[in-house]
Amino acid sequence: MPADVQEPVQEGTKGVVLLSGGLDSTTVLAIARARGFSCHALSFDYGQRHRTELDAARRVAAALGAASHVVTRIDLRAFGGSALTSDAIDVPKDRSAWDVSHAIPVTYVPARNTIFLSFALALAEVLGSTDIFIGVNALDYSGYPDCRPEFVAAFERLANLATKAGVEGSSRFAVHAPLIAMTKGEIVREGLALGVDFALTVSCYDHRPEGACGHCDSCHLRLEGFAEAGSADPVPYRGGTP
What we know:
Blueprint: E1 13-18, H1 23-34, E2 37-45, H2 52-63, E3 68-73, H3 97-102, H4 112-127, E4 131-133, H5 149-161, H6 164-168, E5 174-176, H7 184-193, H8 217-229
Parallel strand pairs: 1-2, 1-4, 2-3, 4-5
């Protein structure tokens, strides 16, 4: 299993938090802050279709008191291969539960979490931090291979082999995935307990100014999470909440 911190750390300990502006990464930022970390948020303008998430990430970072928030640009659209980075591939809508649990969808962005964690590792090394947080989840997710505990644990091993700080330092890098074994409903409840305003977040793969689509995998999982948590999703949906 990936490393995780369950107990509070010394106040002000630096942590790098990957922040997309969605429900999961926002909850992770709140968890890291609650455990005493001085949170340095990192977001990516990678050519994604749903770039309104970057505005959400900025809102969330400000609302949750991130010590810094870096938005860095990389062009994964140059490679394509995903509905999130190519206008030629439609975002799938209303997939069956079987499809969601048995097939990797076209919204998978090749090697995205590996790329994002590599940037987070570089930032952590510069900041003198050994703690990286990522909001991956192995239960309520869309079948992405880079959301599994095995992947997170493997990257943590790499981090301690591939960096000067890992080789020469007195402490080891840890990649924290506090949501890895939680259901979406449990994630929603955790966020609400920590005071997260989920109205600030964007999860939809096909988001537009008038709201979320309500039909992509991410919307379905989000809505199921709020239903499981017994709470109403505060974000607007086009045509009303499904």
